[in-house]
Amino acid sequence: MSTATVIVITIAVLAVAFAIFMYLQREKTRRLRSKFGPEYDRALDRHHDQRRAENDLLRRERRIEKLHIRELDSAERTRFSEAWRAEQARFVDQPREAVSRADRLVQDVMKVRGYPVGDFEQRAVDISVDHPAVVENYRAAHDIALRDASGTANTEDLRQAMVHYRALFEDLVEGPAHATPEPMKEVAK
Asked: pTM for the complete prediction?
């Protein structure tokens, strides 16, 4: 075989390998965008680099795969749903207490399902794998709860926090572990 033939074959093999690599990269991006939805964009904003953002999302998936996330059984769903209804009723007379207890109730559901319940950021990252659309509700509710703790949230803010907590709560209690939930909806004031 001549040197020119070897060079042409080498270039052809490299071109095919590069095309396969680019195809696999596009498919990985497509899959992650599809799975994580708005959380994909959030990761891009945070990392300012597509490769780093995608690696972060892949690390999240691997972490959750190692956990034993499970569905709630019927009795647990009923118990948690009744507790949620009680917190919603409490909101009328004690909005701050209801928001605080709603946050704890969401954490309790997460814990029973098998999610670690360490610091808030880790909880949000863990939830983002199986519940990427409603994790924004969780972040929004948490931000309002922090504002309330500093005395800057009003009753309407607290109502909005309950709406956000409810979206995540319902998805955690009723939704399958790997379901694609409804995106966060704005509530008219």
From this structure: 0.76
